[in-house]
Design a protein that fits this description.
This protein is of the alpha/beta class. The protein folds into three domains: about 50 residues, no CATH class; about 180 residues, 2-Layer Sandwich (Endonuclease, Chain A), CATH 3.30.870.10; about 160 residues, Endonuclease, Chain A. Helix content is about 40%, strand content about 20%. It contains 16 helices and 18 strands. A nine-stranded mixed β-sheet has the order 1-10-17-16-15-11-12-13-18, with helices on both faces. Helix 5 packs antiparallel against helix 10 and helix 12 crosses helix 16. The radius of gyration is 24 Å and the shape is globular. The model has no long low-confidence stretch (mean pLDDT about 90).
Length: about 475
């Protein structure tokens, strides 16, 4: 039996071994030298607390588990794509996504822009009400309030008339609003599953590996995707709600709907731990005369890791005239910052629109610490006035637009399951540019001197928030 005296003698070498072992693990496994150095220093200075913190936050078990668990095989080969549609000239921008996905382009025969819940929810309700075969819905947040319950009513009515309905809600996102929507869905006989649910028994408290994707597919003919969740917060005209959100969503038709439906079923089989009975077959064909061409980009901590980050790098590097970015959270990797500065230096016009009022204060603080390098290089960065703007858009030159669910921050680009849709079209680019310009006109330029004039406590606060930005 170990005595107190023996414990006193054994504890220091055990702590030393734990600190050195953990520091060695960080040295061998961390990709970022700054992160590796920070963890090594912490483990040596705090031989007890350092290894514990590293075990909780430093080990990339997210990627390991994702590669092991997210393995729902669903054949996509039946979806035809075209690498160079006749009469188009999208290279080199189209080459980036092609290299990342090994897929060509899919026709998008129609596209609608749906601003805020006032435009989105009626369109979704109309589509669900008119469904005859299947309704597939995935959302990060699905609130149990007026807007959410209207969607539930429409889904339940679809089930009653014999339509196949499937709903995926993220396990953490569902907990953003009580009561949770899942119980209501199940009580209305709506087939429902949670993406990586958080449970105590068996323990599954992993707060990472979230599905941030937003999808509604109806009869294989209509697909809704973008940045909006489901809930009253997206009703922008409700000025009595201090937490209201401005956002943009899109409704697509054409072959791209097949790609998005394939992505939904892939998630469904993963969540339900089931396998497809037969290979996926789409409902559309590529229209050679389509005016809009598109490509689905899936990203996640599994084998898809870094695809959106690399897409941003590649397309920004290929820009010839302009890069316009609108994002609610802007904590880019150093390589994206470098790509933006390099594009600016070669004469590309760069403008970044960010929310002046953010729903996550720590994200705004960290963002202020990130902007200095870009402002010093002369990049045009502007804050949009309240309310919080949740739109996610990337416009490059006059024919490339990227929409989808991803933010430009470590959580979206490294941890979440996200999706993006590349749109190659001068008309779509012009329409989205008009929306972007309407926001830019009412935005306030961020001045470098304002960052320099922050008080010391504020600078420390912002720097600490930036330090922990991978976990925001």
């Amino acid at each position: 039996m170990m005595t107190n005296g023996m414990l006193v003698w054994l504890l220091p070498p055990l702590l030393l071994f734990a600190g050195l072992f953990t520091a060695g693990h960080a040295l061998l496994n961390k990709r970022d030298p700054k992160a590796a150095f920070g963890w090594i220093a912490l483990c040596i200075i705090l031989p007890l607390g350092g290894p514990i913190l590293y075990y909780l936050f430093g080990i990339n078990r997210v990627r390991t588990r994702a590669r092991k668990d997210y393995d729902s095989k669903l054949n996509r080969d039946a979806i035809s794509t075209i690498h160079d549609p006749p009469g188009t000239h999208f290279r080199p921008l189209s080459t980036v996504g092609e290299s990342l996905t090994h897929k060509g382009l899919s026709a998008c025969t129609h596209l609608d822009m749906l601003e805020n819940g006032e435009q989105l929810y009626p369109a979704m309700l109309k589509a669900i009400t008119g469904a005859r075969n299947r309704v597939l819905l995935a959302s990060y947040i699905f609130d149990h309030n007026t807007s959410g319950l209207q969607i539930v009513d429409a889904l339940a009515a679809a089930v009653e008339r014999g339509v196949e309905v499937k709903v995926i809600v993220d396990g953490l996102g569902e907990m953003m609003n009580f009561p949770r929507i899942g119980r209501t869905l199940l009580s209305r006989n709506i087939p429902f599953t949670r993406f990586n649910p958080l449970t105590l028994i068996p323990p599954a408290l992993n707060i990472n590996m979230r599905s941030h994707r937003k999808l509604l597919i109806v009869d294989g003919k209509l697909a809704f995707t973008g940045g909006q969740n489901i809930g009253d917060r997206h009703l922008a005209d409700n000025h009595d709600n201090p937490d209201r959100v401005l956002d943009m969503h899109f409704c697509l038709q054409g072959e791209i709907v097949d790609d998005l439906e394939w992505a939904f079923w892939k998630d469904w089989y993963y969540c339900t731990d089931s396998k497809p009975a037969e290979p996926f077959k789409g409902s559309n064909v590529n229209a050679a005369d389509a005016r809009v061409w598109s490509r689905l980009i899936l990203d996640g901590p599994n084998k898809h890791i870094d695809k959106l980050n690399n897409l941003l790098l590649g397309t920004i590097s290929a820009a010839r005239s302009r890069v316009l970015i609108m994002t609610p959270y802007f904590l880019p990797t150093f390589d994206i910052i470098g790509a933006l500065i390099a594009a600016h230096l070669r004469g590309v016009s760069i403008q970044i629109l960010l929310p002046g009022h953010n729903n996550i204060a720590a994200a705004h603080w960290a963002m202020q610490n990130t902007l200095r390098q870009l402002l010093e290089a002369g990049v045009d960065i502007r804050y949009q006035p309240a309310p919080f703007v949740h739109s996610k858009l990337l416009l490059i030159d006059d024919s490339y637009t990227l929409i989808g669910s991803a933010n430009i921050d470590p959580r979206s680009l490294r941890l979440n399951y996200e999706l993006g849709v590349e749109l190659f079209s001068g008309d779509v680019n012009a329409r989205v540019s008009d929306y972007y310009a309407s926001k830019a006109r009412h935005s306030t330029p961020v001045r470098l001197e304002d960052l320099y004039q922050r008080s010391l406590p504020v600078r420390i606060r912002d720097s600490l928030a930036w330090l922990f930005s991978p976990y925001l």
